[in-house]
Amino acid sequence: MRVSFPLGFALAISACGANDDRPHSSHTVRQAPAPTYANQGWSPVERRAWYAATQGSRLMPASWLRALERADNETLFLDVENMGRFRFLMDETNPDNPYPIGFAEDRQPDGNFERTRLRWFSGQGDNERWIGLNCAACHTAELRYGATRFRVDGGPSIIDFQSFDEEIALALRQTLDVDSKFERFAQRVLAARSIDDGPRLRAALGELTEWRETVVAANESGLRYGFSRLDAFGHIFNQVALFTGADSPTVRPSDAPVSYPFLWNTPQHDVVQWNGIARNEPRILGVNIGALGRNTGEVIGVFGELNVSRRSGASLFGRRAYSSVFVANLIEMEEQVARLQSPQWPEEILGPLDSGRVGRGRDLFAQQCRRCHQLVDRQALDTPITAQMSRFLPVPGESNTFPPPGTDPAMACRSYERTTAAEFYAGVTFTDEVGTQQRVGDEERISTLLAAMVRSALLDQAGELLTYLRSPTRGLVVNNPGEYAPGTPPAGASVTRLVTRDQVASAINEGAFQSPQTQGGEFNTLRDWGEFNACMTSNPSRLKAYKARPLNGIWATAPYLHNGSVPNLYQLLLPPSRRVPSFYLGTREFDVEMVGFRLGQTTENTFEYRTTNEDGSIRWGNYNGGHDYGNDLLSREQRYDLIEYMKSL
User: Fold this and answer.
1) pLDDT tens column, 36-85
2) Which residues are CB-contacts of 341 (< 8 A; sequence separation ≥ 6)?
3) Which one is predicted more confidently, 36 or 448?
4) Which of 3, 244, 268, 352 is least surrounded, with the fewest CB atoms within 10 Å of its CB?
5) Nearest CA to 29 among 575, 607, 416, 555?
């Protein structure tokens, strides 16, 4: 079903912490009463479509997910309480949609796919419905205060993606191996179809199970993410390695989880991601090619498919590879995010702001914080935002005016240093950060290969992009069951313009997906960065950094720091030595004073986030140091003044 107005989207993927506990199957997450929604500029129709629009992600056939049982009992995997264990949310405004927010049915011809080209009944066509995730799954927040549930679109989810991915694979394996489970599964999937289709279904189930197990094994890490985090780049990079066509791809543990970033203002930034790896440019005829590439990479990493064997040759403009990415919806979703405002502190729910504290906090913010965190009017959605990068090491030729962050280096180091065999992409040219043409080597950085892979996928779909740009009607394509009635097009709806194939290819090739190179220098803050010593003391790069951004709506985005290692704003304003070394995650109960989720172990707060190992050493990936710019000079009252002001942003 097509919603007949422009809608939009921005990147999705960031992640969570590290411990050994997992959500326990007996924990029930309340889903009632219905939530109150923040006023962020979206209509209910836009929101509903955002929750269900396909990006081209393909986890499994939709009928399979509806029929799949949990591994350890006969409960359907899609049961609301089971999905609540991973902290997925439901869209109560659309009860006919059986899936949680962010689960989207995808329907497209599969003739050029490999992993998702499955046949499980006689007479099956090539356009079967599949289910995957879209950005709403990881970027929809909910807070609970008393009896009120307050939902924030574009805010960080608290889902435990790691456990979800693992348990899906386990459920598929047990369905394949346990006859009674398979019989119930087959009855639901095949329904009135011929019993002769049973062997065909089992064979197809075996193919998918092996693939999901391969992906889970590639991402396996001793570091548990828990709620609120995901090593998005680790998952994307391993998927890139698996899709390069290499006989023995190099995969590595996904052990650098980060918080799910909030999405409001994202299209206004010059670069995005925690370390500024992705550019929001160039823009041609209204389409942000940089954002399209960024979101294409996200789809490839989250159950999307890319097949190099079906497009082994090169087009006039470069290598091509067939993918499941739904270009038109990615553009529409980015446009919708461009209309998303940050949430305002709901005084009628969370209590009125103290004007005296807000005023004093504003002065402190101007003195202490504004240098790094640009102030932006929440309604000024076209104000450019220039990244303030805090680099680990000075980069020659740049003014290094911002002090090093001192925070956990895992994400930035991993995203920059990891390599794998290039295979299909060996020899492809790319433009480095200073505008020099380079060629992909036989063994190459995965960040470079991701850029090449994204470009090859978009070149293959230039025709789809042209069709979209020439279409007289625009809107998100939604295949889910439910109500997606079109509404009135919002003011400022995009205008259809014609663009040539040469212009599209030129935009894709002119550097939207560059791979920054290294330069010399040195810097250190800790005496011992453990396994990251080499990364932190040599070979500087623009990617060895973290980005400071405007703090609009920051009150609704706990936990804090890029890796979610600090539970609330008050803790963030303490010297690192006074921050709690461990805390529990999983609840949505909101703490209005310290601003974050409630601490302490409860029936919902079940995952212990530990910043140190048993011997007291730093648990890399979970380190809670850094962001200390004179924190010890602040009094208790000054910290609360700053917090009150940040509530008002």
Assistant:
1) 999 999 999 999 999 999 999 999 999 999 999 999 999 999 999 999 99
2) 39, 40, 41, 264, 378, 379, 381
3) 36
4) 352
5) 607
